[in-house]
Amino acid sequence: MNRLDTAQMAIPQVNTRVAETMVWATYVCVGLACVMSALIGVRNAHNPTDQFFASVALLPLWLLLLDAWAVIVAFTRRLAQTPLRVPLKTPVILSAVHLLSGLGAMRLVKFETIYTLVEVSDRLAHYQVRWTIAVAVIGLSLVALLLSVFEVRLVRLVLLSEITSAGLKQVEPVSQPGVVEDLELGMEHVYEAQVLLNNLGYEVSPISGELNASTVESLKQFQMIVDLEATGKLTAKSMIELRNRWREQEEESSPMMAVSGHAVKRTSSRIAGFFKRS
Asked: Looking at the predicted structure, is the pLDDT value of residue 82 above 80?
């Protein structure tokens, strides 16, 4: 098995244009879904209330555009040599959730379902919104939108990981013999490091992409084991050693599933917390 050498190395600058373009394309998919659902909702309804609920109900269906893009990313990047990937089943599952949410919301916004006739007097009556149905419609769309935020974050992290992973592989000798340069990496590497540490048996919680106390402590423990200076900082050598250890047990555990699993758990807890506060 080929291991990356950390004895003498430096991190070159890597062109991130491809990753940045694909990340922006992901944002465009979300923006397009919001705009199209609003335009069609306004066009097909006749009053502001109907327009609002029609737009909200259409949003999960238009978010299928993001799911399709995530499938493309997962398929085209499936051979990338990086611990983080988009599991193909993740956008497939999310597309099913978006489809069911959209169909359910569209059924609830039908006139005879979302409105009820309220009699004011013997000769006067008016239609009133059933707010329990309205809240259900908004809730379905909100869940779909939050899951899309998770999907965007996952795609972004995977694309950035692929570029930075390529940068770590293209090691170059340090100009001064005997001098070992160990650069501290940016925050865009933290999420990947947390996933790798977790899969190597270290307790990292929460896996949030932030260099929290548990991540620092786990990094110190790992650095001591691999004979690096136990600073708790995420350095190039530490990341290379993490990836080497991951490759050695790649057949036993799947970090990409951990990425999806931890992100789903975090998103689910946030959704539950939102409705609990409501």
From this structure: no
